[in-house]
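job 3f2a | input accepted
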Amino acid sequence: MKKIQISATIMSCLAIMLSVLCATLSEASERVRRKSGLPPVGYSDTVNIPGQKWRVHDTSRPEPGIIDPATESTADLPGSPPSDAVVLFDGTDLSQWKNSDGDAAEWKVEMGHVEVNGTGSISTKEGFGSCQLHLEWATPEEIQGESQGRGNSGVLVMGIYEIQILDSHNNRTYSDGQAAAIYGQFPPLVNASRGPSQWQSYDIIFEAPRWEGEKLTRPAYFTVLHNGVLAHHHTAVVGRVAHKDPAQYSPHEDKLPLTLQDHGNPVRFRNIWIRPLTDYDTDRW
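job 3f2a | predicted structure (285 res):
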């Protein structure tokens, strides 16, 4: 018992030290930006995220520590989806997708991937609720812009709850808006980003919120692996995605389309599949 208590104390101290180190590095990074004449990233005039001490897109929120993800072993050949998955994009066409007007999606499909081309965000024709989602993505090889202007896109589960896509390799932005963040709410536990043009993966477990009429009885939850590294562990979502404003919930249908965002950057996608998890919507849980 004493050993367990000592171990827990040590782990607690290490966690505090890591938090202080991340905050110190974040502050040092901001000082370097200021000395270089670069503007600070994020905002200092927004309100607090509900339940948190941080403002939405807070300039001073500590930056997640940077790690190297596992070596990419499928650079040219994506893996196969499980047998019970709904394949949303297999590298050949966008027959499962539509544009914002409900017409055929017009993103560019070539060489086994699809690329954002400025024609607007696309959504699945089918709606989903709780799910396991896999997708692979790559930011442009040519680095242009900084912060949110570099390789920006996003995957919006139910078209409402966003996991950010961004080139976060040597690219500081506000912490709740970097790659793998629950946008505007929670930074990832670590920054596991690969460099520009390299294929990256998200494996997302999403539990849809529950409602009784207008009353929220259970929030949505995200568990996210970025390049095989845990970015969020059963994190309760604050509400619908919002920019510069605190997220809030409002009632919606049990199943809604998945959306990939067109943010004006030629981000590429491949190997997108989803497994509906209906058990999450039953009393079993």
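job 3f2a | The chain has one domain: 40-281.
job 3f2a | closed
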